[in-house]
Amino acid sequence: MAFTHLHLHTEYSLLDGACRLKPLVKRAKELGMDSLAITDHGVMYGVVDFYSLCKEEGIHPVIGCEVYMAPGSRFDKDAKNRESAHLVLLCETQEGYQNLIKLVSAGFTQGYYYRPRIDLELLEEHAKGLIALSACLSGDIPRLVLAGRLEEAKAMARRYERIMGKGNYFLEIQDHGIQGERQVANALIQLSKELDIPLVATNDVHYLRQQDAAAQEVLMCIQTGKTLQDEDRMEMHTDQLYLKSEQEMASLFPEAPEAIENAHAIAQRCKVDFEFGHYHLPDFPVPGGGSHAEYLRKLCFEGAARRYGKVEGKVLERLEYELSVIENCGYVDYFLIVWDFVRFAKDNDIPVGPGRGSGAGSICAYALTITDIDPLKFDLIFERFLNPERVSMPDFDIDFCFERRQEVIDYVVRRYGEDRVAQIITFGTMAARGVVRDVGRVLGMSYAEVDEIAKLIPMQLGMTLEKAFEISAELRALRQNNERARKLFEYAFLLEGMPRHASTHAAGVVIG
Question: What are phi and psi of 489, to 5 degrees?
Answer without folding.
Answer: -70, -35
